[in-house]
Amino acid sequence: MIDLHVESVHSGPRGAFPADLMAQAVRAGATVVGLADRNTVEGVDLARTALPAGLTLVAAATVPCGVVVHGQARTIELRAYLMNLGDPVLLDLLARARQAREACARMMINSVGVRHSQLTWARMMTLTRGGNRTPNLLIRSKVWIFL
Description:
By secondary structure, this protein is of the alpha/beta class. It has a single domain, classed as TIM Barrel (Alpha-Beta Barrel). It is 43% helix and 24% strand. A 4-stranded mixed sheet has the order 1-2-3-4. Strand 1 (2-6), helix 1 and strand 2 form a beta-alpha-beta unit. The termini are far apart.
C-alpha cells in the first residue's frame, strides 16, 4: 500500500508524531508513505530517524494557494513531493504561508475577542505553548473549545 498524504502534529492538533506515524504505517501494511505536513517540512527528519525497515519515506509538503475560479477566490492545496528540503525558495514559501495563517488566526481572535474580552492573542499563545504542533492551527481549535 502507498499513502502519499500523511500529516503529523506539525500540521495541527489531530496529527500523530512522525515516529508514531511511521510505526502506524507499517502496521497498516504501507510500503511507501509521503509525509506532507502543512506549511512545514519539520517532521521529515524526525520521520526518517524512526523509519522502520521496509518502509520508504517520501518527503512532501502541503501549501495552501489562493486561486480565482469563475471570479471567486478559492483556496486549493498544492502538494510538493521529493523536493530539496533545504531549498531557500521552498523554505521561504513555507514561512510566508505560516505567517499568513498566523495573520488569519490573529484576525479571528481579535474579531471574537470583541465579544469575549478574556480571549486575546496573548492568552491563546499561552494556551497553545508546548508540543511540536503548528501554533496557528492549535489556536483555531482552542478558540472553538474556548468558546
